[in-house]
Every structure is written in structure tokens, then in C-alpha cells.
Amino acid sequence: MEAALEVTARYCGPEMERYVQCVVDNPQSWNKDCHHLKMSVAQCASSHPIIRQIRQDCAEPFQDFDLCLRKNEANMHNCTEHMRRFLQCVEQVQLDRPCSGSASPAPAAGQGTAARPGARRTGDLEP
To answer: Segment Disordered: which positions (predicted)?
Structure first.
């Protein structure tokens, strides 16, 4: 769950902020009044490539976890192992995915960024 929240906060910050503000502003009726904003957060998060990859790669452990929760509504702690396996899968998806600092492709071999004054090369360290 932490991984999903992290992705949501990172890539859907404005949507999340509007939803949280609505909840704060409507303590008695937030569930009804903020539903449309909740859906916009869900739509944003579900369209992210990492979430789509998690859905694909972790479908089986998620289904096992979901089934366990349905069978153990009164004793959800019985599903701890199922949850652990699902979260482990989620973390693996994130570890396997390369970091993407920008949407632009990397320069071709021999075409580094050194031609631009002040540009950093891939191997340069931050000061």
C-alpha cells in the first residue's frame, strides 16, 4: 500500500491535494462531497505505468490477498502473509523498473550532453 501511495503522491500530487482539502473542508459529508475528487485521484494513479505494471505482474498475489480478505472479514490479521507477498511483489516491480528522470530519450552513443555549456553527463556527480 505504501508503494501505491508513494506513486500517487509523486505523480498525482495536485489531484491528491484537492481531494485532501475537500475532506478537510467537509468533515461531516466528505465521503459524498469529495467522491468525484477521489475518483480523479484513482484515475490518475491507475493510468501511471508503474501501477499498470503492478496490476500485470502482481495479479495473482493480489487476487489471493483479496480472496483472503473476503473470507476473513472479521479476522483480517489472518491475511498478513497474503498481504506481505503482494507488497513484496509491488516492491519488486518498483525495483525492476529503471528510474526515469524525464520523458526524453537518452542521447545516442557519442552524442553526450557535453556540447551544451554547463550540461552534465550521465556519470557526473552532484556537488
So the answer is: 97-127
Reply yes or no on whether the pLDDT at 86 is more than 80: yes
**Type of residue found at 19:** Y
Contact 41, 8 (CB under 8 A): yes
CA 25 to CA 99: how far, in whole Å?
Answer: 36
One-character DSSP codes across 94-114: HHHSPP-S-SSPPPPTT--GG
| DSSP one-letter string for 6-38 | HHHHHHSHHHHHHHHHHHHH-TTTHHHHTHHHH
**pLDDT confidence band for 21 (50 / 70 / 90):** very high
Cα distances (Å, whole numbers) of residue 115 to 69, 112, 127? 57, 7, 20
> Closest Cα to residue 12, out of 58, 54, 60, 44?
44
Residue boundaries of the structural domains of the chain:
1-47, 52-94
Q: Take residue 38 and report the three cell numbers written for it.
A: 477521489
Please determine, for residue 112, whether its predicted confidence score (pLDDT) is greater than 60. Answer: no
